[in-house]
Specification:
Blueprint: H1 9-15, E1 23-32, E2 42-47, E3 62-63, E4 65-67, E5 70-72, E6 75-79, E7 82-85, E8 94-98, E9 105-110, E10 118-120, E11 124-130, E12 137-143, E13 147-150, E14 156-163, E15 165-172, E16 185-189, E17 195-202
Parallel strand pairs: 1-17, 3-7, 6-12
Antiparallel strand pairs: 1-14, 2-13, 2-15, 4-5, 7-10, 8-9, 8-11, 11-12, 15-16
Length: about 220
């Protein structure tokens, strides 16, 4: 499969302008080779030349819920050091766990919100499953940056509050293997306008989107 990244000419022009604002919003659209929007794609921007150290200040908390035998959200992006809570809002019990080297953990059979948050203390990919319901899969992308988002149904992710500077923009989705993801893209945020737009195009074959009751996305991919 071949994956390419396309940046709009409007983005290149905007990034070259003079800076007047303190921060900008980077609007990233992710589409397939037919131009159709792709939801649940992680998008994150890291300061160029960063060594991998998490940004200063406390990392926010996050939630991955369990509803209708699914993890909600299906794809969650958090900053390194974030404490994630895994409540079970279903009317049946779940047994949540992960074998991923980034953060192995296990929450025995439960309902409601009975476990303390799990701290994700290093970057990487975490696949979350249920030991009772094999079709339940969730994905957590832990990143060393405060600038991140997940594309919505329109294939758009908004990265707010980005100060002037050079960034490396990357994407991640469980629907393609790591070696076929778009190459990191260098962009310069110069605040020529309050909002800067970019498009990332993924070409070639994508695995089917995960659906309740299906097993198109599996543990052995990561």
């Amino acid at each position: 499969m071949r994956t390419t990244v396309v940046l709009s000419t409007g983005l290149l022009a905007a990034l070259a302008g003079a800076a007047h604002c303190a921060a900008a919003t980077l609007e990233v659209s992710v589409v397939d080779e037919q131009g159709k929007p792709l939801a649940d794609v992680a998008v994150y921007a890291t300061s160029h030349g960063a060594t991998g150290t998490p940004a200063a200040g406390p990392a926010p908390a996050a939630i991955m819920d369990q509803q209708a035998h699914q993890f909600v959200p299906h794809v969650l992006v958090v900053r390194t050091g974030t404490a994630i809570t895994f409540p079970n809002s279903d009317n049946v019990s779940h047994h949540v766990y992960s074998f991923s080297p980034t953060k192995p953990f296990e929450l025995g059979l439960y309902k409601g919100n009975v476990y303390p948050p799990v701290v994700f203390d290093k970057p990487g990919i975490v696949v979350v499953g249920c030991n009772i319901h094999d079709s339940m899969l969730g994905y957590i992308r832990v990143v060393d940056t405060p600038h991140f988002g997940v594309t919505n149904e329109q294939g758009v992710a908004l990265l707010d509050g980005m100060p002037n500077g050079d960034y490396v923009v990357e994407t991640w989705t469980p629907r393609v293997r790591a070696e076929t993801l778009p190459a990191p893209q260098h962009v310069a945020v110069a605040d020529a306008s309050p909002s800067v737009a970019a498009e990332i195009r993924i070409t070639g074959r994508l695995a089917p989107a995960h659906a309740h009751g299906g097993g198109s996305l599996t543990w052995d991919r990561y």
